[in-house]
């Protein structure tokens, strides 16, 4: 039987496993920050509790587990590189000082649209609806290209020792995949291992990379296919271009 996603179940799981701070305390703080009623976001992450707030529901207040804080410098860099895709974010301290697992509190602009996983379902029963779907998909692809081109133009650099550490870790990752995946993948993994030095050469570009580019972290207009934003950059890293493709 397929599992049906439930925001309330995910919220309950978060407070049971990630923090000793209560949901009521989080709601009270979100209310004090926004000064207006709050509602839970329809999609909840595994390491955060998110509510929609503000007089016009224009703000997001997010409480993140200690194991998954935002790096504010990384967020500022992401905002600079992708000003039309990444929301402005401010840090509002921690909730639950002295608790076993305090939560970091962030407030950000609410981006319009729905998650990609929600927006992708469209009626394709007629030729006309299929053409409309293809048109929306083309808009989405163009926006994806714009997002990655922005990253390319925002070239980054790392000290040599950090680059070497990344290359070493990725070689370990490939070795682990070789041990765990079926034999039919062995040729591909051998090719990846052989080409790994190329993407870490001086001529290959390092860029800021959204390290969790999944369907719930991409927001879009379901009517047009236009991407309105990318969220949850907690794991963004500087990596060789293309790691998120």
Write up what this structure looks like:
By secondary structure, this protein is an alpha+beta fold. It has two domains: 7-71 and 87-110, no CATH class; 116-240, no CATH class. It is 40% helix and 18% strand. The chain has helices spanning 7-17, 23-34, 72-81, 116-119, 127-153, 160-180, 186-199; strands at residues 39-40, 48-53, 59-64, 89-95, 103-109, 114-115, 206-209, 218-220, 227-230, 237-240. The protein has a five-stranded antiparallel beta sheet, with helices on both faces. A hairpin with a 6-residue loop joins β8 and β9. α6 packs antiparallel against α7. It is globular, with a radius of gyration of 20 Å. The two termini are 32 Å apart. The mean pLDDT is 91. Residues 74-238 form the Aminoglycoside phosphotransferase domain. It comes from Lophium mytilinum. This is Aminoglycoside phosphotransferase domain-containing protein. Pfam families: APH.
Would you spell out the secondary-structure blueprint of this structure?
Blueprint: H1 7-17, H2 23-34, E1 39-40, E2 48-53, E3 59-64, H3 72-81, E4 89-95, E5 103-109, E6 114-115, H4 116-119, H5 127-153, H6 160-180, H7 186-199, E7 206-209, E8 218-220, E9 227-230, E10 237-240
Antiparallel strand pairs: 1-2, 2-3, 3-5, 4-5, 6-8, 7-10, 8-9
Largest sheet: 5 strands, antiparallel
Distance between the termini: 32 Å
Looking at how many chains there are and whether they match, the oligomeric state comes to single chain
The fraction of residues assigned to DSSP E strands is 15-25%
Structural class: alpha+beta
Shape: globular
Supply the number of structural domains. 2
Low-confidence parts: none
């Amino acid at each position: 039987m397929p599992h049906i996603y439930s925001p309330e179940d995910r919220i309950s799981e978060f407070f049971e496993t990630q923090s000793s701070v209560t949901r009521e305390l989080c709601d009270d703080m979100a209310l004090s920050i926004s000064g207006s009623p709050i509602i839970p976001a329809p999609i909840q992450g595994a390491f955060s509790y998110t509510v929609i707030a503000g007089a016009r529901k224009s703000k997001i207040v997010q409480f993140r587990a200690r194991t998954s804080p935002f790096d504010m410098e990384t967020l500022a860099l992401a905002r600079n590189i992708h000003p039309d895709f990444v929301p402005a974010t401010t840090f509002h301290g921690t909730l639950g000082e002295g608790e076993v697992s305090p939560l970091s509190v962030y407030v950000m602009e609410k981006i319009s649209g729905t998650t990609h996983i929600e927006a992708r379902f469209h009626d394709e029963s007629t030729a006309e609806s299929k053409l409309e779907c293809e048109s929306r998909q083309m808009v989405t692809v163009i926006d994806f290209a714009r997002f990655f081109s922005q990253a390319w133009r925002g070239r980054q650099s790392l000290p040599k020792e950090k680059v070497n550490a990344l290359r070493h870790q990725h070689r370990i990752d490939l070795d682990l995949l070789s041990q765990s995946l079926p034999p039919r993948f062995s040729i591909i993994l051998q090719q990846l291992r052989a080409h790994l030095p190329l993407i870490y050469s001086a001529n290959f570009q390092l860029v800021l990379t959204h390290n969790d580019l999944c369907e719930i972290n991409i927001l879009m207009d379901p009517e047009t296919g236009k991407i309105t934003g990318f969220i949850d950059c907690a794991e963004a890293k500087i990596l060789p271009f293309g790691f998120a493709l």
